[in-house]
Amino acid sequence: MLTGIRPTKLMHQMKRAGLSKEEIAEELHTVYAVSREKIALLERIVERQLSVIPDLYQLDQGVSIYIGIPFCPTKCAYCTFPAYAINEKDGSVERFLDGLHYEMEETGKWLKDHNIPVTTVYYGGGTPTSITADQMDALYAHMIDVFPNVNSLRELTVEAGRPDTITLDKLKVLKKYKIDRISINPQSFTDETLQAIGRHHSVEETVEKFKLAKAYGLGNINMDLIIGLPNEGVAEMENTLKETKKLGPESLTVHTLSFKRASDMTKNKEKYKVAGREEIGQMMKMTSGWMEEHNYAPYYLYRQKNILGNLENVGYALPARESLYNIIIMEECQTIIGLGCGASSKFVESGTGVITRHANPKNPRAYNERYKEYTHDKIKRLEALFQASPLVKQ
Ligand code: SF4
Residue-wise over 28-58: b if at least 16 C-beta within 10 A, else e? Predict the structure, then answer.
């Protein structure tokens, strides 16, 4: 029943409305038909979130910033993110970066002028490490110049998702700018699966780049895993968990495969053989048991349409290694300004929690043509949103 609804957000809303733990559990069970087992999971996640961000309900006076870099080395079969092959000419990378620098500068200036603090910054995409080390260096240097309070951000994340984009030079840049948290995403530890989904990197490369990042002092690494990838069953999942254990990332996001409408996988469904509902359930159970055993606790959860086994995606972390940005975006408790390609902004009205959205174009060519207009649209929306805020300089 809770498809397209954030179950943890629902629980937070009930909590904020003053309902007791028992009343919330009863309502979730009787009105929304949530099983007792899943209610216990939601309670755990909500408690964990509030211990990591005790001021979660007061964050609406600040903002977080998402920066979308829309390039990847190749496109994965299940992907619907704005991810354009970096070597093809779908709008030049340099022109895109010029537009992004402009958006950062204008937005940062507005935030500084209005005394609005930034809580977290998250570079996603695409793959933010698919640009060159020099381009990354220039981008982060510019961020420090133009954003307010960069030195007191609570968290700065860069998704280095595809191991095939990670180089020594880029790791040095990440370290130089004190990036707190990166993601290196294996998705699976079976080479045949990686080939079948078009990842174009090997298991060996994931391991090698992970170790390299650790050796360079990047001490908070997240890994994404996917349950139910083509031709994978319990045995492959067991192998993935066994290999994950050897690396010991600080956090893990476990997705269950979803057939998104625009992905290559959905368009060519007959080419991809996936496990049945029962086996998916077994894999999920095995994974959550493994997390428990290895001290990873669940700290955010969301559900998607057309997800295998009608299950959920869950973020797990070792103590104090949770991603604050992930909590903020899931619980929709703060405005997130999206800059760059395919970046969506969510404007959260203080007090009412009413949300309005704005989306930058997904295609770099369209972005390159109209980024100024999109920047100013967002600034107007910010003006309207923060007009009544006591933080705004009059
Ligand atoms: S690396 Fe991520 S963003 Fe890039 S194509 Fe694959 S799934 Fe999409």
Answer: beeeeebeeebbebbbebbebbbebbeebee
Calpha distance 36→145 (Å, rounded)? 50
Residues 6+ apart with CB under 8 A from 371: 99, 100, 102, 103, 360
Supply the residue whose CA is at minimum distance from atom 8 of ligand 1. Answer: 79
Ligand 1 atom at shortest distance from the alpha carbon of 80: 8
**Mean per-residue pLDDT, 294-312:** 80
Length of the chain (residues): 394
Which uninterrupted H or E stretch holds 69? strand 63-69
Residues sharing a CB contact under 8 Å with residue 172, sequence separation 6 or more, in sequence order: 133, 216
Give 334-387 pLDDT, tens digit per residue. 999 999 999 999 999 988 889 999 999 999 999 999 999 999 999 999 999 988
Helix (H), strand (E) at residue 111? helix 93-113
> Which residue bears the tokens 């309502």?
27
CA distance 321 to 122: 15
Ligand 1 centre distance from Cα of residue 127 (Å): 7
Mean pLDDT of 20-43: 95
Q: Model-level pTM? A: 0.92
Distance 256 CA to ligand 1 centre (A): 16
The number of the ligand 1 atom at minimal distance from the alpha carbon of 126 is 3
CATH C-level class of 58-386: alpha beta
| 3-state class (DSSP) for residue 309 | helix
Expressed in angstroms and rounded, the spacing between residue 79 Cα and the centre of ligand 1 is 6
For residue 280, report the distance from its CA to the centre of ligand 1, in Å: 23
Atom 6, ligand 1: which residue's CA is nearest? 76
Domain ranges of the chain: 7-50, 58-386
Q: CB under 6 Å to ligand 1: residues?
A: 72, 75-76, 79, 81, 83, 125-127, 161-162
